[in-house]
Amino acid sequence: MSPSFAVRRFTGAPGSARFNEIVECFKQAYSEDHFAHSVTAGKTDIYHRLNYSLLLSGILSGEVYTIEEVSNGNKVVAAAVWFPPNRELFEESEQGKAVGPFMASLFPELCKWWRTRFLPEYSDFARTKFGDGVRKAAWHLQWIGTLKSYRRRGLGTMLIDVIRNKKNGKKMCLEVERPENLKFYRKCGFKEIDEEAHHFECYNVHKEPGFGMWAMLSD
């Protein structure tokens, strides 16, 4: 019997069994990702907290969708965190819930890099690439991941189409760190704003090569 999959919006409680299952799905999906490794200094505990805080921010300020394998006990095999227009990751209202605990989990040098280098540069990147207010006015795909053994089955497309079918004329946007993923997002209707990626340095510039980032937009 071929597996059957369902897209569902997650509205459960932080720390619940399903919440933790989604965190684990993201952890496994990004376990070999250079970007995730770079921004967490390769520390397993920080990597866990990053995925936890991103999902928590998605519940508080955005929308979280999962792909569940119905024929396998509704196992979560893919998930995405979207932010609707006028909402964004790590809003001020989340300081004591999503942002604060994550920053507290960072060792001092990495925390300083996040606060003084990465987050300001990421905000400037979004403003200059998309244009003032463009990303904030669009549906923004912040985080998406599929378990390795379930890739190439159209699950990522399902997690994009769920917003495409409800966006009511609003644009959709995202950032891409892995060049091999550009082709997938092009097939989903996104276009790079610039051909060349913006280069971000890691907090330890002498040991890590940094990572590139493309801005992509879809009508």
From TrEMBL:
Chain ranges of the N-acetyltransferase domain: 60-218
PROSITE patterns, alphabetized: GNAT
InterPro entries referenced in this protein's UniProt entry, alphabetically: Acyl_CoA_acyltransferase, GNAT_dom, Trichothecene_AcTrans
Any Pfam family the entry gives: Acetyltransf_7
GO molecular function: acyltransferase activity, transferring groups other than amino-acyl groups
Protein known as: N-acetyltransferase domain-containing protein
Origin organism lineage: Eukaryota, Fungi, Dikarya, Basidiomycota, Agaricomycotina
